[in-house]
Amino acid sequence: MFGIDLGTTYSAVAKINDLDQAEVLKNASGADTTPSVLFFEAGGNVVVGAEAKSEMIATPDDGCALIKRHMGTEYPLEYYGQTFTPESLSALILKEMVNAANAEGGTDITKAVITVPAYFGVREKEATKQAGEIAGLEVVGILAEPIAAALSVGVRGEKKETLLVYDLGGGTFDTTVMIAEPGNVEVVAVDGNRLLGGADWDKALSSLVVERFVDQAGITDSDPSEDPDFMVELLQTVEEKKISLTKRTEATIRCRFEDYDEKIVVTRADFEAATAHLINQTVEIAERTVKTAQGIKPGLQIDRVILVGGSSRMPMVDQALRAKGWDPVPTEYDLAVAKGAAIYGQALLSGAVPFDTTGNPSAENSAGEVPLNTAPKYFLGGASTLNIKNVLSRGIGVKFVKPDANRTPYIGFMVHANDALPIVDEVLQAGTVVDNQSQVNVALYEQGGEVEAEEIEANTLLKEADITGLPPLPQGSPIELVLNVDNEGLINLSAREPQSGKKLEIEAKISVLAAEEVEEAKEIVTGLMTRS
Fold first, then answer.
1. Cβ-count burial of 283 within 10 angstroms (0-12 exposed, 13-18 middle, 19+ buried)?
2. What is the pLDDT of residue 156?
3. Taking Cα atoms as reference points, which of 198, 181, 211 lies closest to residue 380?
4. Can you count the helices (H) and strands (E) in the chain?
């Protein structure tokens, strides 16, 4: 069983070794992590990883990066006449990583747990699972990254602790408050921003460098930032310099554009000033998460702040969190999530994940059989079982209309972000809008932004359907809505009209891709040769 951290900028694969320890498997280049970058060659081959990043400098239009930011959305990209979705592009990354891991270990493993940001909704989670299926994997678990990090570093001690997981990756950011001890993880609150990550620090640094380059070289008749080739090379360079500024107080970046050639010096203080607005956003989200958690569990206090994600290495992260009174603890920034996924996967295989009375696992997974033994599992800190209590990542609501002249549509939320899972039989009484109504439209929506908003455009439509063939109903006739959300985040909405007994069931386990499109993408990905 592999645990896979499918990251926005870097990815990693891990498994449990013969010593019951989570071990990261090196890629074909001998590195622990693989850049989540693709480059398409004219002959039909696809390059994945570090070489793909290098190739993109010369031919940026033939490459793809940061595709995770578009997971679960309609975002088609075309290379050499073939159209790819975010799911199929992610599948190519997964395919190469798994091939390399199997070659490294002399194995033929096809089962995997894949991690996702804590605030990923229904569409993104299902899209991630489909990406694994397109890659030829049996995806037995979709696990939130902070939970994976906690399994890696937070459940090894003997005492119960309340953790704040601060996860700043290359393309996404989230924070999670959870209570952890060996064998038990209870998520209390999650929050985050899918469009905030280390790549935004890179862009801010590149803007600073371009500004200084133009000034220092005296460029007046052109704009280097409008040259795609220049910017692709600069962004790769500033990523390297950003990393060096973690350990050094100054970095020099060489910029060449047209006949201009300059060396631009940037200090760590310059970099921190240019990105202060970004670090402030992460702190605001972290504070908001803690406040939400304290509202759920009054008196809750954070025992440890766990830093996860490669971008959490930046000194400004430690400084900003300490300024708020926290004492952040470093981890294996880039590797903790993959290791935690491997731990969870092994817990599934060994039967350590308990099942409820309906036969559903206690966390987001779809594999395993009923546990047959309770022998200690050393990869769980000596615990014999693993219990995970999760929360809903985003609010879920239904479209209603206001009783005004325009019958203005709005979203009425039935359940909210950070409600504990599972949610069972949440009931809401609705009513028909006009006299003689014989059809009722039921539309299920998911919260689209960081906070709930009733505007239709601020939310994501999951699925809609109609109850038809009703007798002419007077205005205000009751419609019963019953919402259920299981431990996997699978949503079921039941709508019933009592007079006729007509009923509608909406199940929201959906993605942009239909089942036949997944199979078509699988054939395409299978036929492509990947290398790193």
1. middle
2. 56
3. 181
4. 11, 28
**Separation CA 444–CA 459 (nearest Å):** 10
Q: What is the pLDDT of residue 368?
A: 42
Pair of tokens at residue 293: 């958690």
What are φ and ψ of residue 409, in 5° steps? -75, 150
Residue with tokens 């270990």: 105
In a domain, 236, yes or no: no
CATH of the domain at 459: 2.60.34.10
Closest of 358, 314, 301 to residue 492, by C-alpha: 358
Average pLDDT of the residues of the chain:
88
Helical H runs in 297-372?
315-323, 336-350
Write down the residue that tokens 């693989």 correspond to. 34
The pLDDT of residue 386: 81
CB 331 within 8 A of CB 5: no
CB 109 within 8 A of CB 1: yes
Which domain range does residue 144 map to? 2-196+283-389
Residue 468 corresponds to which amino acid? T
Q: At residue 280, what are phi and psi to the nearest 5 degrees?
A: -65, -35
pLDDT at 367: 44
pLDDT over threshold 80, residue 511:
no
Among residues 389, 408, 440, the one where a domain terminates is 389
- Residues sharing a CB contact under 8 Å with residue 273, sequence separation 6 or more, in sequence order: none
What per-residue confidence (pLDDT) applies to 357? 36
Q: Give CA–CA dist 37/10, Å, rounded.
A: 8
pLDDT, tens digit, 9 for 90 and up, residues 116-174? 988 888 889 999 999 999 999 999 999 999 899 888 885 655 678 899 999 998 888 99
List, edge to edge, every strand of the sheet that includes 46-48: 63-65, 37-40, 46-48, 530-531
